[in-house]
Specification:
The protein is of the alpha+beta class. Helix content is 32%, strand content 23%. Helix 1 (46-61) packs across helix 2 and helix 3 packs antiparallel against helix 4.
């Protein structure tokens, strides 16, 4: 397969907390959760966490042994927790964490795994795109944000209610009935969204951080088939450029999301033979 990728920091004064990489037959994308105050809990920082976890995942995937993707993720989470568990408060809900997207071509099938709010877009050979995401974080966010409805922004009451909403959301992190994300507990990997389908039915697959998926929603600059077209021409960097244009054009809107790290990878499958061999070109 041929893999193209691009990434861009959301702000010039902060490190890019996303990660993307590939090995023969597999691609990994992580979106780090930059939570204010996390530096007091872990001096390494979120970017360190995403790069260490992403590197560990690629290392395990490079073995090509066909291990279950959730098992690989659990192992990698445990390894990174062991690297800084003695020096950092990794059990705190605000300590470094990341969403995870993984795809792997193995023995004639495409396997995938998603944890939290990143996206996969399967470019299917005989149908429209299939969009896969883990909706539990967004569901929890909507529910926890409900008390803000009707509260006036910029007031002390808004700040108070918002703080309580944030606390409620963090309490649902990696908890039954809440949502799951890669952090310190390997058991979160068991809760990932996973799937598999024959390689012959897929032309390619896109992996997106939510900083890129916003080109479809909320910005509405294209749809999912249009996104796949853009990934062919002008490619991942061109998609991110369009995201940045949309951010700039909506900057004056109080409800518009702030610029975010944006990362995308597109794996194009050449043939069933290439995929079965796990070739990376």
């Amino acid at each position: 397969m041929q893999v193209s990728m691009a990434t861009s920091a959301g702000r010039a004064d902060r490190p890019n907390e996303d990660f993307v990489g590939a090995v023969p037959g597999a691609v990994v994308l992580l979106d780090g959760a930059g939570i204010p105050g996390a530096e007091s809990l872990c001096f390494h920082g979120v970017a360190w966490y995403t790069h260490r976890l992403g590197g560990a995942l690629l290392g395990h995937l490079s073995r090509g042994d066909g291990r279950d993707l959730a098992a690989i993720l659990a192992t990698a989470i445990g390894e990174i927790a062991g690297e800084h568990g003695d020096t950092c408060d990794i059990a705190d809900p605000s300590s470094p964490q990341a969403t995870v997207a993984m795809v792997r071509a193995h023995q004639g099938r495409l396997d995938w795994l998603l944890l939290a709010d990143c996206f996969l877009v399967l470019d299917r050979a005989d149908a429209g795109p299939q969009v896969v995401t883990d909706e539990r974080e967004m569901t929890a966010r909507r529910e926890c944000s409900a008390p803000l409805a009707g509260v006036v922004r910029g007031t002390a009451e808004y700040d108070r209610v918002r703080a309580s909403c944030v606390t409620a959301l963090r309490a649902r992190r990696n908890q039954p009935g809440g949502y799951w994300i890669a952090k310190d507990d390997p058991r979160a990997a068991r809760e990932a969204v996973t799937g598999s389908q024959p390689l012959a039915s897929v032309n390619g697959v896109a992996l997106l951080s939510n900083g890129v998926s916003r080109i479809v929603s909320p910005y509405g600059r294209t749809d999912w088939p249009g996104l796949l077209d853009l990934l062919h021409t002008p490619g991942p960097a061109g998609v991110i450029a369009r995201v940045r244009q949309a951010e700039a054009q909506t900057a004056a809107d109080a409800d518009a999301p702030a610029p975010d790290d944006a990362t995308v990878a597109y794996a194009k499958f050449q043939s069933a033979t290439d995929l079965s061999a796990g070739a990376l070109r």
